[in-house]
Amino acid sequence: MIRLLDATTHISPVLFLGTIGMILLAVALVFFIVFHQRRVMRYQQRIQVMETEHQKMLLRASIKLQEEERTRLAADLHDDAGPLLATARLYLNDNLVNLDKTAQMQSIFNAKQIIDETITLIRNISHSLMPPTLKNFGLESAVTDFFQKINNSGSINASSKFHDYKVRLKAEKELILFRIIQELINNILKHSKASFIHLTQHELPEKLIIRLHHDGKGLTQDEFLRFTKFKDGLGLKNIQSRLRGIHSDILYEEDTSQSLFKVTIDIPREEGEVI
Fold first, then answer.
1. pLDDT in tens, 264-275
2. If we measure between CA atoms, which residue out of 240, 237, 236 comes closest to residue 188?
3. Taking the complete model, does pTM exceed 0.70, yes or no?
4. Which of 88, 103, 161, 206 would staple 114 via disulfide (CB 3.0–4.6 Å)?
């Protein structure tokens, strides 16, 4: 009996210390979980703030591009269409009724020619905003037509190949991508001294890949990122802003094995665009 009491007395402190240890461990675990959750919440809040700021930046860039487009459009209409319409008005002034019939017919004919020229001009301006081939037949036809015109100039060999563009992107995304391709080609024609340009398109389950090859002087990715920080790199900044608008990436690289430069654009497909 005495031995049993001694054993119980000996075990009780162990149980007591073990219980205290478990309680302290549980309290520490609770504190750790609460602390971790607070850190996660703070991190999520920071991410949310960053995403909000990023969306604001994209919105400002989009608004800026729209304003620049409107400014260019207004300048084209003012500088080109304005003088033509003012000239046509000269032929159709109040004195027209006082002219003989032959002079009247000549004035009306001259005014009609000027008005027809103005209509053609405005049509060309509207086509520059949304090319009819792109609107009616899609990106593949618009790019093919664009490259054919470049190739027909005889100054450079230009070709394009769409391998499996079966499901079109959304119209606004096609327009942005077409403008990016135009700007890239414009840069190549102006700065690279290339003798050929070749564009290819490939499909993956959830993204579209556009790749440009040329044999002129090109950029690396580091140079592209550096130039977008300069004021003189407006064209590259526009490319970067447009890409952000469609959540796409661009990669400039040199293929030293073939003495070529490559530009690759990855465009993720949205719901309704996935093959």
1. 999 998 876 765
2. 236
3. no
4. 88
